[in-house]
Amino acid sequence: MDFLIKNCNSIEQAEIKVEEGRLNIKYGINGTGKSTISKAIELYINNNKNLSELTPFKYLGKKTKEEFKPSIEGAETLKSVSIFNDNYINQFVFKQSEVINNSFDIFIRNDDYKEKIQKIEHLISGIKETFKNNENLEQIIKDLTGMSEGFGSSKSGIDARASIAKGIGKGNKIENIPAGLEAYSDYLKNEANIKWIKWQIEGNNFVNISENCPYCTSPTKDKKESIKSVGAEYDAKSIEHLNKILGIVESLGIYFNDDTNNKLIDITKNKTGLSTEEKNYLIEIKGQIDVLKNKLITLKGMTFFTLSDVDKVADKIKDLKIDIGLLSHLNATETVKIVNEINNSIDSVLNEAGKLQGEIIKQKNGIQKTIKEHKEEINKFLRFAGYKYLVDIENDGEEYKMRLKHEDSPDSVKGEQCLSYGEKNAFSLVLFMYENLSKNPDLIVLDDPISSFDKNKKFAIIDMLFRRKKSFNGKTVMMMTHDLEPMIDMVKTLHRNFAPIPMASFLESKDGIVRELEVKASDIMTFTQICNDNTESQSGDIIKLIYLRRYYEIISDKGLEYQLLSSLFHKESKPTIKLNQTTIEMSPEEIINASDSIKSKIPTFDYGIILGQITNKNEMLLLYKDASNNYEKLQIFRIITEHHDVEYGDNAIIKKYFNETFHIENEYIMQLNPCKYEIIPQFIIKECDLSLLSTEII
After folding, report:
1. Which of 329, 454, 482, 606 has its Cβ near the most Cβ atoms within 10 Å?
2. Are 12 and 682 in contact (CB under 8 A)?
């Protein structure tokens, strides 16, 4: 697949090629636009082709012509894309209960699991159908739950803070209006009584301001005490609790036997509050309500997990049958009708209990096998990468969750507090892999995933992502990186360990135009090779000598040849030898010997002629202008500015970059040839241009 990206952030245009079914490594220096490329693809797929947030700054707030709007071509065939970047890492909340959200879906819910679940669901479908076909059951469960919760959680049976105690604990003051407040009965018994009580109490705050009503301004002198007493007798919250209990009792009325229903109504209309006998009676009802409620909830939500931890499935299912004869308060015609339907459906499942037991055992064995495989794979990675953590996948009663543990403790730990940024990054990357093996997107993008890790961890992650049986091997993956090291491993030194061999390319950006150049194994060379090749192949003695001097530096040979070239590039008319902070002039014989050695590599070498060229500012500026790549421009710039006070302004970083960063290339044993790949950022060369313009050199 080929992508053409235009007008996205700093990218004017980028042509990116991705080969399907393999890893595509896109290597480029920082600032090339790698993250913008991945973001453009992500937005196109996940944001309904809307790339407006990538609009370049120069077009923001302006009416942009269609040809200058952010766009991407080539992504039309993609249905799904998954991106690993900082946003993905940040979305992970490493909880103590679960190391990754949806770990059950990622690690357990595979095709084999789904197939076995379907068989189990089929065997218990009779119970499910009963609940599906009876619309009243949902409301019954809700009302039974509300009634039970109305008692609260007190061990004595009725919590003083719960609805029953708050609503009828001191009597029903809606049914039994206190003396002197009868005039307000129409308001108190109205369905909007809660709002009225709030309204009336708020008005009390203004009663003492005037002798007149704060609402209608009619005289209230003789009524003030009566008005105030409403607030003293009633509060909106208690009435809210009362209304709730009355509503539930009314709704459940047909499911209580007549005697119980009548007694409940009498208790809820009580004038003075609950007696000890009434409390005990209510607690007895609650016990039976809880039995029925809990069985209904269990049956309605019956799944594999309901039965997975029992030795005999038949015994568990029998225990869920409802003996309405033992629930005397609920032994009503409507309740019996529902219970009979449910018990009949349970009997139909019991007839298949043997098959159900077998399918559950198969599922449990399959899950344990899956857990064992995932745990071994991830924990092996953690051990090889040097992390002192391990993961476990445990059944929490409803599903399986992955938990994080430290090797020194059997308890789960909270990753948010314990893991460093690098550890979170590594975990997220591995979990990202498993998640996308489950999702199977059309394209997987890794945006600079491993640059921050040391060599051992890098290789452990690469091995996990691309070499194991369960990995991204064979998936379409695009990995953006500014780190050459993984490309050296996967394309050069260990390419035979990857099948198919990854495709690699170098991203080059100049003035907003991004192009990619293929990188083959032969393109990744030691810097010694690069210096030798460029010394032989480049035109112009000065360029050749630059690479030759680098060659002597890289092999730590600072003999006469190096000293002669160093003197030349420092524009010394008389070559010198610098050793141990002392400087001595080269003897004529030493100059001849060094020159002869250099001529064996560059036959046209002549110290005096080259010195004349180097000290000729016009000739050097022309050489700088015509240099074929940024690396050579930078080296020529350093020669031009030797002995000159170059203007860097306040940019100390740029000055350090010029003077040190690329003085001796020792970052990698292997590199890309700077004659072919622009390894020096374009902004550095622009700074060189500005520095030359701001000095007296030009």
Report:
1. 329
2. no
Partnered with residue 317 across adjacent β-strands are: none
Q: For residues 245 and 152, what is the distance between their CA atoms, to the nearest angstrom? A: 13
- Alpha carbons 27 and 647: distance in angstroms, whole number: 33
Least confident piece of the model among 131-145, 554-568, 642-656, 660-674: 642-656
Distance in angstroms (rounded) separating the CA atoms of residues 352 and 123 = 7
Q: What is the pLDDT of residue 6?
A: 93
Closest CA to 107 of 400, 379, 465, 472: 400
Q: Where are the beta strands (DSSP E) in 241-316?
A: none
478 φ, ψ (degrees, to nearest 5):
-115, 115
Structure tokens at 37: 């490329």
DSSP secondary structure letter of residue 13: E
Reading the block at residue 176, the tokens are 């039994």
- What SS3 state is found at 58? helix
For 544-588, the DSSP string reads HHHHHHHHHHHTT--SHHHHHHHHHHTT-SS-EEEETTEEEEPPH
Give the largest Cα separation in the chain, rounded: 128
What residue has token string 């979990």? 431
Asked if pLDDT for residue 67 goes beyond 50, the answer is yes
Q: What angle do CA 147, 152, 153 make, to 5 degrees?
A: 130
Distance between CA 454 and CA 131 in Å, rounded?
A: 57
Question: How many other β-carbons are positioned within 10 Å of the β-carbon of residue 460?
Answer: 22
Helices (H) and strands (E) in the chain, counts: 30, 15
- Reported as type and span, the H/E element at residue 635 is helix 630-640
Cβ-count burial of 481 within 10 angstroms (0-12 exposed, 13-18 middle, 19+ buried)? buried
β-strand pairing of 670-672 with 524-526: antiparallel
Distance CA 54, CA 9 (A): 5
DSSP-assigned beta bridge partners for residue 392? 403
pLDDT at 607 (0 to 100): 95
Tell me, letter by letter, the H, E, C secondary structure of 359-424.
HHHHHHHHHHHHHHHHHHHHHHHHHHCCCCEEEEEEECCCCEEEEEEECCCCCECCHHHHCCHHHH
Instruction: For 410-465, write each residue's pLDDT tens digit.
Output: 877 765 667 777 777 888 888 889 888 888 999 999 998 887 787 778 888 888 88
Strand positions, DSSP E, 407-467 = 443-447
Q: Determine contact, residues 387/423, Cβ cutoff 8 Å.
A: yes
Task: Work out the pLDDT band at 97, boundaries 50, 70, 90.
Answer: low
CA atoms lying within 13 Å on the CB side of residue 471: 20
> Above 80 in pLDDT, residue 46?
yes
- Give the relative orientation of helices 136-149 and 333-350 as an angle to the nearest 10 degrees: 110
Least confident of 42-46, 182-186, 604-608: 182-186
As given in the structure block, the two tokens for residue 309 are 């931890």
pLDDT in tens, 644-679: 655 555 555 555 555 554 444 444 568 898 889 988
Residue-wise pLDDT tens digits, 388-398: 888 888 887 77
* pLDDT computed for residue 664 by the predictor: 41
Alpha carbon separation from 87 to 39, 91, 348, 446, 447 (Å, rounded): 11, 6, 51, 12, 11
Distance CA 579, CA 558 (A): 9
At how many degrees (to 10) do helices 236-252 and 193-204 cross? 170
Nearest to 542 by CA among 558, 562, 565: 565
Q: Tell me if 37 sits within 8 A of 16, measured CB to CB.
A: yes
Q: Go through the chain and tell me how many residues it has.
A: 698
Mean pLDDT value across the chain: 85
